[in-house]
Each structure stands twice: as structure tokens, then as C-alpha cells.
Amino acid sequence: MTALELSRLQFAVVTVYHYLFVPLSISLSALTAGLQTVWWRRRRAGVDDPRLGRVTMLVGKLLMATFAVGVVTGLVQEFQFGLSWSAFAEYYGDVFGPTLAVEGMLAFFLEATFLGLWWFGRDRLRPLVHLATIWVVAVGTLISAYVILAANAFMQHPVGVALDPATGRARLADFGALLTNEVVVASFPHTIAGAFMAGGALLLVIGVWRRWLPSASEASTLAASGSEAASSRPDEAPTWRLLARVGAWTTLVGGVAVALTGDALGKVMTEVQPMKMAAAEALYETTSRAPFSVFAVPLPGHTQPVSLDIPWLLSVLATGDPTATVQGIDDLQAQYVAAFGPGDYTPWIPVAYWTFRLMIGFGVLATAVAAWVLWRTRRGRDLEPTGRGWFALGDRWLVRFLPVIPALPAAAATVGWLFTETARQPWLVFGLFRTADGVSPTLTPTELGLSLAGFALVYGVLAVVWVRLVLHVSRADLVDLHPDPVEAPAPDPVLEPSY
Fold first, then answer.
1. pTM of the full predicted structure?
2. CB within 10 Å: which end of the chain, N or C, has fewer?
């Protein structure tokens, strides 16, 4: 492999791994703040519901473990700009510098500081002050996500920059334009909705795992497959049930929001990067009333693949108008050659086509699982993984495949980002800077291969540590959130001075 290919692979590995923890940090911080707010308001109203406090502490513990790993992997991702992409950093460093600085200040100073205050101040701060610390973390996480998405949106649709005539480098001319880029305005709610799907699925699995234990025969099946069945005290059952339903509602609402915001993002994408939408459908010819193929299978000896199409859907996704015309790959290639000079401006079509469909499929499946759990546990009902009948069979399959459920939103987010970044190729900054021009000129394939192997080893260890931490938190007994305000101690008369 060439240095360019290894640099792209290394950045993809680092970024994909880091993004496994980012959605969890975003959603778990917001869920912790929301749950603690409900607990605090009920306490002030005289309603004592220890379930809320216990769930808040559990979600907070998961946040602590996830945030620590996310910060470490995020550092490496930012260093990649200087390690493997120094030519890009030299040219566009003035644009990315402010966004990375804001994100770093928020992650390492604001979020980390107040997360520490929340954790260690539970028995020391007054309830309202303690609640305020986790809200600072939640809001800071959202701001951090927004500025990083603004930097990525610049790569998709460059705005707010100008070329410095003295240095020839790009400089940031309008920071406001960078933050209000139409791509980030559309991608931010889509990303946050996906983050809540990821956090909700994790809570759903832990709640179902601890509340609805499998039978002895199923427990042996799980053990044979490498899974473990947890045990919980009878008095904790209502709390685990609440956790499962909170996770299911979060996943369901997040899934619906992902669909709605994804529709808006698709229209923006068609406007600023029409080649990406054409690649998502493998649409080579400009077409009116363009259909959307659910899947396509090429057959030997046939020029056209066999596909299952939904009429007019691609035109709806691209523009909102079922009769609209969608530009094809061939016409767009000719336009780009005329605008940017000779070259191949077509992304890898099979990757764009299938990642787009896998993104939708994984998201729909996770949403369906959440809907099933909510419907089966409505009005105080319980899952019946040891019962008989069709519903019990569905519950059994749910319990059997519990470890897979959190992977569904993670897989949807991963292939979604793969689609977003690979379907932009060959551009690093669309229309301005090609990927081949951004790699560090002095790096050798040997150096990149060794560093990639090192990252893979360290990240593998971190993955094991994070999974063990999550399992430990999930198996542990529940802890109450401190119910009483902290009062100032009365003065000790023995220590009072006498005059």
C-alpha cells in the first residue's frame, strides 16, 4: 500500500474507533442530567422515588468510563492532522485551529472539570449545585460536538475562508459563516439523534439483562456463547425495568429523529455535493422521477443489475419533489472535469451504495427492537423469555441477542460516516483541496504501517478495558443519589476562642 492509502486507513481506524465513544458521551451526559433533574424536582415536590436516583447514578458511572476512553482516543485523532496530514494542516490550519481549540478547551477543561465535580461532589455539594455540574457537562458536550461538526462541514462545503496572497494559505475570514454552514446546521441534529440511539440501546440492554433473567437452559446457552447472565435483588427489579424503558424510549425517539433529520440532511447534501447522492444510488444517468433501489444484484451477462426499486423515492429524498430530476454520475463527472481539470471525480460506488443502505437498515432494526420492548412492557407487563407462544419466542430472541443490540446504532453511525467521507472523494475539502495533496510528504509506508499496528494494539487494550468497566458497572448493586442537602457543620464550642 502507498503512503496515501495507509494514511487514509490509519485516519479511518482512529476516527471510527473514537466515534464509538463520542455518541455515548453525548447521550449519557444528557440523560444523566435529565434523569437527575426529574429526581430533584420530585424531591422538592415531596415525592420520594429512589429508582430515579439509582438510575441516574448508573448512567453517570457509564458516562465516566466512556468519557475517559473518548478523551484519550480523541487526542490521537486530533494529532493525526499533524502526523499524517501535515500538508493539509499547513494549508488549512488557520481554519481548523479555532474549532480544535474550542473543542479541546471544552473537553479537557470544562467537561472534565465539571464531570469530576459531579462525581466527587455527590456528598459534598447541595443538590441544586450538584445538578448544575452535570448540566454544564451535557451542554459542553453538545457545544464540543457542534464545533467539530462545523470543521467537518467545512470539508463537505467550504465557506468562510479566503486565500492569503502573501502565504498562499487559506485563512479563516468569517468564523460565523463557518459555524452557520448549512451542512453543519443539518448534520448536527442528525448526529445528536444518532447519539441518543446509541446511548438508549446501551441502557435498554443493561435494563433487560438485569430485569428479565433467562431460564436455566437459556443461561447455559448464553454461557456457551460467551455471554453471562446477571442476577439482581428483587427490590432492584423496578429500577432495572425503569432503566430498560428509559433506554427503549430514548432509542425509539432517537430513531424517529434520525429519519426526519436525515431527510433534511439528504436534501442539503444533494445541493452541495450532488455526486454523493448519485453515488448513493449508483445513478449513472440523469433521471427524472428517479427511483430508489432497496438493493441491487449484478448478474453475469447483463448490463443492468436486478434491483428492487421504490418509484420516485430518490427524487423525494434528493429534493422533496417526486417529479424532480436527479443528476447522474456521468454528467457530474463531465462537469467536474470542465471545472477542475482532468481526473476521476467519481467515488467508490459500491462502498457508497451499500454503506448508505446499511446505515438505514441498522438504524431501522435498532428502532424496531426498542418499539418491541416498549410494547411488550406496556402498562406494567413483563417480557416472558421463558414462556410459550409467539410473543415469548420474540422475547427469547431478544434476550439471546442482547449483546448485539448496542452494536446496531454503533454500526449505523460507523457506516454513515464511512459513506459521508468516502463518497466525498477524491476531495479532502470539496472543490478546493484533493486528498492526495494533503498527506505528509516525508512519511514512508513502513512508518505508517508500524504506527497503525501500534494504534490497533493500544486501542484493542482500551476496548477490553472499557467493556470490562461497563460489565462491572452493570453487574454492581445500585447506588442511591444523595437525598439530603449538605448543611454547614455547627461550630465546635471546644474550639471556639474565649476572650
1. 0.88
2. C
